[in-house]
Fold this protein.
Amino acid sequence: MKRNNAQIARLLNELADALEILGENPFRVNAYRKAVRVLQDLPEDVSDLLAREGEKGILEIPGVGSGIAKKIVEYLQTGRIRKHDEVMARVPSGLLPLLNIQGLGPRTIHLAWKELGVTGLEDLKRVIENGELARLPGLGPKKVANILKGIESLERTGKRIPIGEAIPLVESILEALRQEAPVDQLSPAGSFRRMKETVGDLDILATSSDPARLIQTFVHLPGVTRILAAGETKGSAIFEDRYQVDLRVVDNSSYGAALQYFTGSRDHNVHLRGIARERGLKISEYGVFRGEQRVAGETEESVYSALDMLWIPPELREDRGEIEAAQEGRLPSLLELSQIKGDLHVHSRYSDGHSTLEEIAEEARRLGYAYVAVCDHSRTARYARGLEIDRLKKKLEEIRALNERLEDVTLLAGAEVDILPDGSLDYPDEILAELDYVVASIHQWRKKEDLTERILRAMDNPYIHAIAHPTGRLLTGRDPYPVDLDAVAEKAAQTGVWLEINAHAERLDLNDPHILQVRRRGVRFVLGTDAHHAQQMWMMRLGVGMARRGWLSPEEVINTCPLPELRQRLQERRKRRSSV
Ligand code: DGT
Ligand code: CA
Ligand code: CA
Ligand code: ZN
């Protein structure tokens, strides 16, 4: 999502939440929510739109009324929305955070506040415990039990930020610093550089001819809502009331050592420090030392080589065997983004996506891809405008016609087919056979259903190529569904079905622990962004991050195949099953 659009969407969403907690007119609330969705899908940043077409351009965004258009303009001109500030001031500050609890909505919060005087989490826990909450109209023990589960899950994950949300922010900060401040070397560090699926705070490292000026520029960047520290070598600020970013400025002579140190992980560093000690060396953020003498520090390579090991890619630095591998010279050659030849899971306007086939092809070309599989939902997925067979045939025709015209990119006719409760698929075989690429997935299941059998059965169908988002988890919220991933992986290896690494920012499924769990069985992985807008296809980076953290090499990832080889493999899978 574009930066200003994202920030305004966040403010309007918060405004709608606050109004709902205040118990105000649902029509107004809905208008804000609608504008939020529109902004999230808008391919152009509203500031560009304003610059090009003036206020009229903002007014003409479909789904945005004049009141909201004024607020968008106000934000672009002043960085604030007064109405937002006013309304927020009327709601006790402990109430909005309660919305992060799954199973608890604004209406319940309104009731708990007005009827029981709840103004924050501690109050809420109290009225759950003493039974008062369950006695409110429309609640009851079952709902309250759900809310309690939500509280527990939130307390486990805390306020960590999904990596997909952090990337646009970090990139805009790096870009701004490069343009506006005296910087020499500049790199993200910490969990962000390791591409962890969620990050706590964001760490940036720099060298500069004028550290003080660099730090001043940093803490006054647009988007900073609070300055925590602004010293000689370190600045720390909160962006958009939510993201803590630390900038450290170091000497060129210790840049490598500092980058190594602040990239972490802590466990990786502790292990390295032990190895240094055994060799009579001392490693710190300033360098590697033998007594007083600095033996390394300018580059990360020098630091690792002083300890007699290969440079270790940041994504591996979790103390999961990478140090031993680096000592023995057997680090894997990891998958790289540049090796990805296509995206194998994108939705179009045919189902619940927002982009046309042309727009998807255009974005694929921009990304340098050879192919994209357009996988729209199947007919049972009504909530997602799943395709009936006649629509699917129409899509096939359109893809064929478009491929005639397209030169450097090929669209693959795909589908994301629901696995029905009995393990059968949502289209008959003769229809599936007409498609180039089929991913099968589960979107609806009964509580407590063990989904393993259902998925295993689907893999017996010779026409599917992959299982999409194999665990069903959502990054901020839903836990994985009950599925025996080992059993799925074993069958996948047997049948030649691939497992998807769904790269969508909200999924990242499989993630690195899952990949590490199953890759030994010899399964192949396939990357797909599950983009519902061509502008979301950048999320491939996140999937590559998961793959790298899962130690995957290019051979293990189908998307590294050029088109002819991919086609061959797609055919092979179907032959393989039918000859069994
Ligand atoms: P986060 O922010 O929770 O997602 O995780 P990190 O890994 O970014 O951790 P953070 O921001 O606390 O510190 C950045 C890196 O600095 C961390 O990965 C390792 C290094 N570091 C920080 N404090 C210590 C420490 O006390 N000992 C060691 N060995 N390393 C540290
Ligand atoms: Ca951090
Ligand atoms: Ca930090
Ligand atoms: Zn999908």
User: Anything to note?
Assistant: The chain has four domains: 3-157, 161-249, 254-327, 337-579. The chain has a mean pLDDT of 93. The chain is about 45% helix and 15% strand. Residues 190, 201, 203, 246 surround calcium ion (ligand 3) (CB under 6 Å).
